Structures are given as C-alpha cells and as structure tokens.
Amino acid sequence: MSDIHETPNEPGNLTGDLPGDNPASSGNASDNASNTAVTAAGESARRIEDSLNQVLVGQHQVVRDILVALVTGGHVLIEGVPGLGKTLLVRALSRCLSLDAARIQFTPDLMPTDITGHAIYDPKSESFRIRKGPAFTQLLLADEINRAPAKTQAALLEVMQEQQITIEGKAFHLQAPFMVLATQNPIDQEGTYPLPEAELDRFLFKVLIDYPGIDDENRLVRMVLDGTIGDALDVSSLSAITDHNGVLAMQDAARQITLDPAVLDYAVRLVRETRDYAGLSRGASPRASIALTRAARAHALMESRDFVVPDDIKAVARPVLRHRLCMSADAEIEGLQMEELLTRLLEQVPAPRQ
C-alpha cells in the first residue's frame, strides 16, 4: 500500500452565465455554448479511445464501454480469464487521464480494512490516527474481486455508492472523479465467490472481455516482439490527453445531452419487460432504467451527437442489464445464455422511430 495524498476537488465548469439583455438571444447563446461543450467533450473522449486502442489491441468494444461508463460517472465490472489486458487497460486509462490509480489484489484472506484503511494507535501522541487504504484514489482496480469472500467484497459498497469511506465514525470524501474497475474470473472457476446482488447493482456496466481475433492476436504478438509495445504492462508510450477537470467536463457535457420523452419511454419499457420475461426469474429494478438513460447520453456524446436516439439505448442495454438479471431454472436447463435472452428482448420491444 502506498501513501495517498489528498488534493482538493476542482470541478471543471464548461459554461457559465451568459450575458445578454434579450432572453431569446441569451437562450440561443446558451444552446450554442452547450453544443460547443458537447462537441469538445466528444472529441476529447474519442482521442482517449484512440489512444487506449493502441495498447489494448483487439478490444475496441471493451474500450468504448469503459469510456462510456467513465463519462457517465459509473463503475464497471469486467469479466474475463486472466491475460486479456484488464490490468493494462486500467493503467493506460490512468495515464491518459492523469488520474491517481491504485490496485488491490483480492485474495481469500483479504480483510475489509485492507481496502478502506483503519485507525492505529500512535504511542508518541497517545492518540489514534487514520491510515488510509488504497481505496483513497481516483481509479481503483479491484483485481479478481470474486476471489475474496462476501464480507471483503462488501467493503466497496459505501465507496461505490456514496464516494466516501467511513473509518471510526468519520466520513472521508473522495476526490472526483472516482471510478471502480473490478475484474472477476468466470464464476465457474475454482476458488471464486459470486458477488452479492446488492454490490452487483452498484456497477453501471458488466463488460465481457474475450480473446482477440486471430488477426488482432497476430498483430499483438508482432508488436510485442518488435518492441512497439511492452509485454510488462508498459504504458510509457501514452501521453496524457486530459486531467480530472477534463473528465468532470465530459461528465457535465453528457448531462446536457437531450433525451426525448419517447426515447426515455423506450428505455423504461425495456427494463419493465425484464420483470415478466420468459426465461428470467428476476428482472431489473428502476436503478437499471436510470443507468440505461444516463449511459445512453454518454454514448451519444461519444458519437458526436447532442441528443439520444434509440440506437444509443440498444448500444448500452447489454452491459447495463446482463448483471442485473437472473435466468430461470428452465432457461438454464435448456442451455440458454444471458446474451441470447438480451438479444431476444431487444428484438421484441419496439423502438420509437428516429
């Protein structure tokens, strides 16, 4: 565990009060400023995306999902076997964003205080002082989170939901932006513990990372052999694209994206359909509806649009819903997969005309 230095939060303001005596002209100026902010934020996000794709070869969808979650202000659960670049992704993201990052390797003997920190007695001052854990950071990599039992996993609940950590009754607020990227091995592997439902629901996305295609894997091996990229999580070739103020600005721009009532209704209908859907024993809660619309705004920003279309909802529906649903016993006996059910769901619920 390394020492964590707290720095004051400096949120980035994209727009301020615009002068103007004419209310109509003031409104137009405000709209123009909003559109400019969205455009600038979208360009910055795509530059980060291009930079990450240089080191994480063949995982374009994973990179896009991570950035959408970052712009949304949510946390991500990444599932995949070891060796696919999950740790590399977090290190590369930290370098591109100039954010503090910390890594916790979850093991069966890890204690909750190893994550959050604890109070220790100082004989010299005859008082207790707080020793902060690695969770006091901005990008937190919780590596192989399902290797630890539920009590230790639950230590992240408060920090994920409220972005604060309570030690000995005192609350410590974390510097924004704060994001947890938790990796887990497939749950059928030996020595893994399924995450509690309450914690799963705190993740905005569940992202599946799979083996790269043969062309991408050939390219990756050649790049390592030629020294183009290192094989030891080397991200020194990446340059900083923005900082914490820039990330906050992107998040603020995403909140300005227009969401039509018809598109909002489509997102809510999708989530409500899961509650009585054949093949599912448990559907998604209203928290999923909120996550779906917020993530769709961030996806629209990544696509250089200042409004949400139904395709944005569809693009984020799978990572938003896959960890919030529970398949029925009959569906599992039939050999159905969650991805198949989500595909059927998206085909069944009609989308509004664009």
Structure description:
The chain is α/β, with parallel strands linked by helices. It has two domains: 34-256, Rossmann fold (3-Layer(aba) Sandwich), CATH 3.40.50; 257-354, Orthogonal Bundle (Helicase, Ruva Protein, domain 3), CATH 1.10.8.80. Helix content is 44%, strand content 14%. A five-stranded parallel beta sheet has the order 2-5-8-1-9. The protein is globular. Mean pLDDT is 84; it is low at 1-26.
What's the short version?
This protein is of the alpha/beta class and 354 residues long.
What features would you highlight for this structure?
disordered N terminus; Helicase, Ruva Protein, domain 3; single chain; 14 helices; Rossmann fold; 5-stranded parallel sheet; about 15% strand; globular; about 350 residues; 11 strands; alpha/beta; 2 domains; two-stranded antiparallel ribbon
How do the strands of the widest beta sheet line up side by side?
2-5-8-1-9
Number of helices: 14
What are the segments in which pLDDT stays under 50 over at least 5 consecutive residues? 1-26
CATH architecture annotation name of the largest domain: 3-Layer(aba) Sandwich
Mean pLDDT: 84
Distance, first to last CA: 51 Å
> Strand portion, in percent?
5-15%
Instruction: Please trace the helix and strand order, writing H or E for each element.
Output: HHEHEHEEEHHEEEHEHHHEHHEHH
How do the strands and helices of this protein lay out in sequence?
Layout: H1 23-55, H2 60-72, E1 76-79, H3 86-97, E2 101-105, H4 113-116, E3 117-122, E4 127-132, E5 139-143, H5 150-153, H6 157-162, E6 164-167, E7 170-173, E8 179-184, H7 197-200, E9 205-208, H8 214-225, H9 244-254, H10 261-273, E10 280-282, H11 286-302, H12 310-321, E11 326-327, H13 329-333, H14 338-348
Parallel strand pairs: 1-8, 1-9, 2-5, 5-8
Antiparallel strand pairs: 3-4, 6-7, 10-11
Helix pairs in contact: 1-2, 1-3, 1-9, 2-11, 10-11, 11-12, 12-14
